[in-house]
Amino acid sequence: MNAAADSRLPADLLDDLVLANKILFRLNVVDAFGHISVRYPGEPGKYLMSRHLPPGMVTAADIVTFDLDSNPLTQADKPQYSERFIHGEIYKVRPDAISVVHCHARPLIPFGTAKGAKLRPMFHMCGFLGCGVPIFEIRDTGGMTDMLVRTAPLGKALAASLGDKFVVLMRGHGATMVGQSIPEAVFRAVYATENATIQMQAHQLAIDGEVEFLSAEESEKSGQGRNVPRAWALWKHQMTAQP
What we know:
The protein contains seven helices and seven strands. It is α+β, with helices and mostly antiparallel strands. The protein has a seven-stranded mixed sheet with strand order 3-2-1-4-7-6-5, with helices on both faces. A hairpin with a 6-residue loop joins strand 1 and strand 2 (46-50). The longest helix has 24 residues, at 182-205.
């Protein structure tokens, strides 16, 4: 059985999860790689995510139910994402996290690798970055690896690096974001990526590279999620409107 056949799941949740995959692909946050999950409604010990597919190809029939150890409870005979442990281990320690995005968005990569660089909020859409953006160093837990979070211990270490923040960069790999809903997780993934591009441009323009970031108070006031519904409504319209 796939999740689409599970009568306990709201149809609109599956629709949003499928759309989120396609939105992230359309907006160049993910390409053939990356994934988004959502916690199973009413059962916090489970989550939903696609089986091993490029995000732009995901359909409702491809959605798998996982436990928090990232064992597939449905479609266990199908290949699954090797980095599913990112999701399960974050859900274990972050009860506020309802959705998780993992991506390799290119504008974010330099901020996880350039010594001394910090991803900081440039404009009001990115106040969620104001609380800080940690960097996960996989060598500290796994030594020399292929940079992928293929095991529960590596997923646990990533979740610890994320801590109580909303975004964690992964050195030489990408980034992971959490939200209290699918739309919020997608919003944070999209705008963290845009912020990275804008920040790089600002440093290039500025005298001696000095940039004025949002203050802590500005970040707090602008990071309340009020922009999420409007952005999500547009992205859904773009994906579903008839040509």
